[in-house]
Amino acid sequence: MTTAETQPAVLRRATLGGALAAVLVAGAVAPAQALDVPPRPEVGAVQDQADLLTDGQEEQLNRLIGEKNDENEYIRAAVLTVNDTQGESIEDYSRKVATDWGLGDDGRNNGVLIVTDMGERELRIEVADGAREVLSDSDAENIMENQLEPGFKDGDYADAFTKTVTKVYDEADPQAAADRAAKGRTVATVILSIVGVVVLGVLVLVWRCRRSTRQIMDQAKREIEQYEREHPGEGISTSMRRAYLKYRLQKPKAPGLNDDPVRRTGKDGIEREVHYAPTFQSWLPLYAVSPSLYSGGVVNASTSSSGSSGGTSSFGGGGGFTGGGASGSF
Predict the structure, then answer these.
(1) What three-state secondary structure class fits 79?
(2) What percent of the chain has pLDDT over 90?
(3) Given Cys at both, which of 36, 156, 248, 309 links 66, Cβ 3.0 to 4.6 Å?
(4) Picking from 106-110, 223-227, 286-290, which range would have the lowest pLDDT averaged per residue?
(5) Is Signal set as a keyword in this record (predicted)?
(6) Which residues of 66-86 are buried (b: 16+ CB within 10 A; e: fewer)?
(7) Shared domain check, 189 and 168
(8) Within a domain: residue 36?
């Protein structure tokens, strides 16, 4: 066979090889498909794309999150249900969604996203870095095992979300966190006390702080009980009790006579002069007018109510989702 006869075959092989190389190069440089992040809830903090909840159940869950946001500044929670995570692991998917939504307060990174993937039957409690100060990965794992997974295995989705959200906020409650920290300090102090008098002094200091806190709490509870006895027709809700206890812990003493009055802006956008309430009875009308100024929490004028959520919004430009939390399945 002559060289002229073999040339077409050589050219054909070269052409096919070049085409295959072009396809491979194109595939290598083609960008990965962007994640189609579900839209952030327009009202409240629940995005039920998998349609697991009735309208009434979703409204109740939104109201619960709103109330908890008013009571607890350390956590901002949201709930998402989907039928698939678009090929992503539930951990990566949860982080991307939470970051895109701006879940949590800006600068505090205190968001917690509870995610359900019905397609793979997977669950995730994604905890931002700031929220991990009061809700550790171990706490998230316990909530996953004791509240979220059992409810989904039983098919009672609304109850599972309600118990999970409640436990998330309760575990991160300032008083609960303080109790856990105090317990940890006490145990550590007992261990270290054998090395000398210095550690013993630390133990005494911790004990005094806890005793002082207990005295303040006991006095506040007595004030509430006395008010209820004197006003039997008025109901004092659990959220009101917690708000007053938080207020009294942060305001145990009246300001000095020479202190300038404090003016702050509530969530309604109105600036008011904040007065000191020495008793529960004097605190109650002030709280009724402006709960955000007399709940013992930090007032953030930039946060706002979200429709039927019944409280502070969970979305304030937060971030810091680097992998904290816990995953599960059902």
Answers:
(1) strand
(2) 41
(3) 309
(4) 286-290
(5) yes
(6) bbbbbbbbbbbbbbbbbeebe
(7) no
(8) no
Question: Above 90 in pLDDT, residue 234?
Answer: no
Question: Both 50 and 163 in a single domain?
Answer: yes
- Residue 183 sits in which domain range? 178-301
| pLDDT tens digits, 244-272 | 888 888 777 777 666 666 777 766 677 77
Is it the case that residue 284 has pLDDT exceeding 70?
yes
Rounded Cα distance, 209 and 62, in Å: 37
pTM of the model: 0.56
- What lies within 8 Å, CB to CB, of 290 at 6+ separation is 266, 268, 270, 272
Tell how far CA 282 is from the center of its chain. 32
- CB of 110 within 8 A of CB of 318? yes
Task: Report how far residue 45's alpha carbon sits from residue 80's, in angstroms, rounded to the nearest whole number.
Answer: 9
78 and 148 both lie in a single domain: yes
Nearest to 186 by CA among 174, 197, 199, 176: 199
Alpha carbon distance 95, 97 (integer Å): 6
From the list 110, 35, 162, the residue with the least C-alpha distance to 324 is 110
Q: Are 77 and 159 within one domain?
A: yes
DSSP symbols for 200-243? HHHHHHHHHHHHHHHHHHHHHHHHHHHHHHH-TTS---HHHHHH
Q: Is residue 14 part of a domain?
A: no
Please state the rounded mean pLDDT for residues 223-246.
Answer: 86
Is the residue at 25 inside a domain? no
**146 and 194 share a domain?**
no
DSSP state of 120: T
In CATH, what number is assigned to the domain containing residue 111? Answer: 3.10.310.50
φ/ψ bin of 105: left (φ > 0), alpha (ψ from -120 to 50), beta (otherwise): beta
Q: How far is CA 161 from CA 3, 104, 180, 306, in A?
A: 77, 19, 24, 19
Give pLDDT tens digits for 174-193: 566 566 566 666 766 767 76
Residue 302 has pLDDT above 70, yes or no: no
Comparing 4-13, 80-89, 171-180, the range with the smallest average pLDDT is 4-13
Please give the Cα distance from 290 to 278 (Å, whole number).
17
Residue type, 230: E
